[in-house]
Structures are given as C-alpha cells and as structure tokens.
Design a protein that fits this description.
This protein is of the alpha/beta class and 482 residues long. It has 3 domains: 80 residues, no CATH class; 123 residues, Aspartate Aminotransferase, domain 1; 249 residues, 3-Layer(aba) Sandwich (Aspartate Aminotransferase, domain 2), CATH 3.40.640. It contains 21 helices and 18 strands. The strands form 5 sheets. A 7-stranded mixed β-sheet has the order 5-13-12-11-10-6-9, sandwiched between helices. The longest helix is centred in the first third of the chain and has 20 residues. The chain is globular. It starts with 6 loop residues before the first helix and ends with a helix. The structure holds pyridoxal-5'-phosphate (PLP). Pyridoxal-5'-phosphate binds next to helix 9 and strand 11.
C-alpha cells in the first residue's frame, strides 16, 4: 500500500477479526462438522480479505462499517463461499436458451444408452484393447470402425479426441512440409479465434490458397497443383453461408481432378450429420456418406455436433490412408478416451436406426420438436409459475431456436417461448439471478424480456426448471418488499 491509511479506515481494519478468531467461533465449528476443512479455510480467508479490501477502498462509511463487520453477515458470507467451494465446479445447468448445440454448455447431451455404456466402461475393466475371441491385444478402434463404415460406406474409420485433432493428424500425415490446396472461400474460423488455416500450418502443411472469397473454380485448383502439392482440402462452411455471386467446386469434381494425379483429397465436414436432417424439415446438411460417394479419400467431422454423441473427431475414408494416419506417432497424442469411445459406439448403434435415433439421441429429438410441442410445455410452465409466484407476468409467444455449434447457421427453428416480464429489476438482473441460482438456468434476453425456450430442456427437467424459476421470482418479490 502506498501512502498512509486514513485513521478512520485503520480503525475499521483493526476491528476485522483474524482468521483464527473466526475459526474459533461456534458457528464455524458447526460448519466444519459438515463441510471439508479446506473449503471452510479458503472461504474464511476469502471473506476476510474481501472485508479488508472494501475497508481500504474506503467503501464503508462509518455508519455502514457496522454492517461490514457484523459477525452474522460475515458468517453468512463464509457459509455461501464454503458451499460454492465444496461443491463441484463443473456441474449441470438447465439450458433454456434454445441453442441446441451450445458449445459453452457442453454441446450434445448424450442418449441414455450412451450414458449407460459410458458408466459401464468407467466402472470397471473392459475389452478396450483386447480381442476376447482370440485372447490377444486388440484395437480400441475396432469397437466403432464397423459401425462407421456401415453408416458412411467408407472402407475404414479412425476416431480421435476431436475434429480439430482429426484435421491436424490428417494434414500432418498426408502433407507435412508440402502444400495443401484450399479455396479462399473455405478458410474458416471455427470459434474462439480457432482457425482452420492455423491448424493446417501448425500441422506442418503449407497453405496454398486458391480462388477468391466468393468464387473458386476447378481451374484455380488445377493451376495450383504441382510437385509440392500434398493434399487438396475442402472445408464445409458449416458455420456460415456464402450468398449472392458465388461459385465453389463440389467434392466429386475435385475428386475427379485429384485421382489421376494421385493426390489425396480430404473434406472437413465439421458438423457431420450421419442422419439426413431434411426428414425433420431442416436444411439438408451434406452427409459423410455423400462425401465418400463423391470420391473423397478422407472425411472428418465431430462426434458432438449433429451426430449428437460425445466429443470425438471421426475420420472415415480409404483404408491405406487411414492406416498411415494410425501409424503417425501423433495419433497417440490425440487418442480417443475409453469413456468417449463407449458413448460413441452406443450413439452410432442408434444412428443405424434413424427412427430410434430421432427418439433417443437428444440433439436429434430437440431438432425435430415442433413449435406446438415446445409451446405446450411452455404453457404448462407458465401455469405453474402463475400458481407458484402469483403476480408474475408471463406469456407464451412465437420465437426461434438455433441449431448452434457452428451448424446450420441460417436454419430458423420455429419455436414457442415463455416470455417473462422482469419488473423493476430489469431483464439483465433477472437473467443473472437465474444464471446464478441452483440449478443455474440459462435464458435469452430480448427487448427487455427474459425468454425461456423449452426445446433445449429435457422434459424430465421441466419440474426442476419450474421450481428454480419460481424460487428466483419469489425471492425477487421478498427483496422488493424489504
Ligand atoms: C466444429 C468444426 C471443427 C472442430 O471440431 P471440434 O470437434 O470442435 O474439434 C472443425 N472444422 C469445422 C468445419 C467445424 O465446423
């Protein structure tokens, strides 16, 4: 601290109890009996440090210093901080935002059969890398390869930690030190400043950009091919759309260009649908099977976007190329973990039965819900809120859900949302109280209203959601009255 502390601040500082004094108190002893010691200690230190900071900042005027130093206020702060610390940091939230593949909220919730497979694999030992019939070492890839080949028509498959790793491994194996030809219209940023061209160059590929932002022609690719070429890469624009005066070369024509020249061609599909979403009334995303049929040698996509499985990067394509990828020492650094593998296998089994997939894979179920079905649940929530928190002003109205996760960016999903009028505190304050409640509820704020979209809430969570929102709304009124 520079300068001298004013005497009135010094007086307050001296009255802040020491950690030992607080710990000796009876209330803290009761807290220690039910909460871990480390959490209580951290909470005490944090709360007392907070008191000192506020005193030094000159915050408590003499008349409010009493409140700052009130043992009951301090105790309550310590109890709240202890509960926060003792509980898990990573915990479930209710996603009422209507964004189905919400990257910040963990993307795809898993199907029940995927959860069961994950728990079974986690609980004990498994035949992860053991061939039970032959009694010899096996490959973890064997558990999913057959399903992926059946779903996509590919000769072989390989799964890794995530799709960025899949692209990295493929570029590193097939084009390290060589040129990777890519259209300027496909140099995409995935999110969080993570860019495909950066992945390619850090994997050792040399970027050879062709065409322009809006138009790339076959002749552009043809002219770029030379002795330095290692790979032709096509990146699906899964998170944005190019409209207007545009041209791109489809995978089939690129494959026809690459084949006679013995060049591998790879397509990063990003969101990676295995099931045709046009059956749900959505825009048709290119399927991995389409790319394989077009002659693409290596196709990559995510496990936790439109497939609706766990985080994973999936590669399907030619046997000989994928065998080279497997032999790359980097393959070990991006190996898929056994829990994800178990959940992925179960999800792929569901994907082989499109009707069951639509019922049981949460992402597909949410995407296929009608506005009327979402609206009926919103009406039930509204009725519950009116009963639990009389005076609450809420209505059900038209709205739009989002696919999210960088998939189908312009696809509007008509929905019905519960719209809450926030009252005097304002929409931002209500949103924050819902977000910091228990369980946290994440909503959308629009035109000074708080919107809840039940498309992304599991039906079995509807009662929990009602209780959480009602608790926040009734707490608000108590606060207003005080
Ligand atoms: C999302 C995405 C990725 C990255 O996939 P992760 O599984 O998140 O690593 C790569 N390429 C494209 C085109 C994507 O949309």
């Amino acid at each position: 601290m520079s300068g001298t502390i004013p005497p009135e601040v010094g007086a307050i500082l001296r009255r802040i109890p020491s950690v030992d004094e607080v710990l000796a108190g009876e209330a803290i002893q009761r807290l220690l009996a039910r909460q871990p010691r480390w959490a209580v200690l951290e909470a005490v230190r944090e709360v007392l440090a907070g008191c000192r900071e506020r005193a030094l900042a000159g915050e408590p005027r003499p008349e409010s210093a009493q409140a700052l130093l009130d043992p009951q206020v301090i105790q309550a702060s310590i109890e709240r901080a202890t509960s926060r610390k003792a509980g898990p940091s990573l915990r479930p939230v209710i996603n009422a935002s209507g964004v189905v593949l919400h990257t910040n909220l963990g993307r795809a919730p898993l199907a029940s059969s995927a959860l069961a497979a994950l728990v079974a694999a986690a609980r004990g030992y498994s035949n992860l890398e053991f061939d039970l019939a032959a009694g010899i070492r096996g490959s973890r890839q064997a558990h999913v390869e057959r399903q992926l080949c059946a779903l996509t028509g590919a000769e072989a498959a390989l799964v890794v930690n995530n799709n960025a790793a899949a692209v990295f491994l493929a570029v590193n194996t097939l084009a390290s030190g060589r040129e990777v030809i890519i259209s300027r219209g496909e140099l995409v940023e995935i999110g969080d400043s993570f860019r495909i061209p950066d992945v390619m160059t850090s994997a050792g590929g040399r970027l050879r950009e062709v065409g322009t932002t809006n138009r790339t022609h076959l002749a552009d690719y043809e002219r770029a091919i030379g002795p330095e070429t290692g790979l032709i890469l096509k990146v699906h624009r899964s998170n944005f759309q190019l409209l207007g005066f545009t041209a791109e070369v489809d995978a089939a024509r690129l494959a026809a260009l690459a084949k006679p020249r013995n060049l591998p061609i790879m397509e990063d599909l990003g969101s990676g649908a295995l099931v045709d979403l046009s059956a749900y009334g959505l825009r048709r995303e290119p399927l991995a099977a389409d790319a394989i049929r077009a002659g693409v040698d290596v196709v990559t996509f995510s496990g936790d976007k439109l497939l609706g499985g766990p985080q994973a990067g999936i590669l399907v394509g030619r046997r000989e190329l994928l065998a080279r990828l497997r032999r790359n020492p980097l393959a070990r650094t991006v190996r898929i973990d056994k829990l994800c593998l178990a959940a992925l296998e179960a999800t792929l089994r569901l994907a082989r039965e499109p009707d069951r997939a639509r019922q049981e894979i949460p992402v597909l179920r949410m995407l296929s819900l009608s506005a009327a079905a979402v609206g009926a649940r919103a009406e039930a929530l509204a009725a519950g809120l009116r009963a639990a928190a009389p005076g609450v002003r809420c209505v059900v109205e038209e709205g739009t859900s989002e696919v999210g996760g960088g998939a189908l960016p312009l696809q509007a999903l008509p929905t019905r949302v519960l719209s809450l009028a926030p009252g005097r505190e304002g929409a931002g304050a209500l949103e924050a109280r819902l977000r910091t409640g228990e369980p946290p509820v994440l909503v959308r704020v629009q035109d000074q209203r708080v919107l809840l979209d039940l498309r992304t809430v599991a039906p079995e969570d509807d009662a929990t959601l009602l209780a959480a929102v009602a608790a926040v709304l009734t707490a608000a009124r108590t606060g207003d009255g005080a």
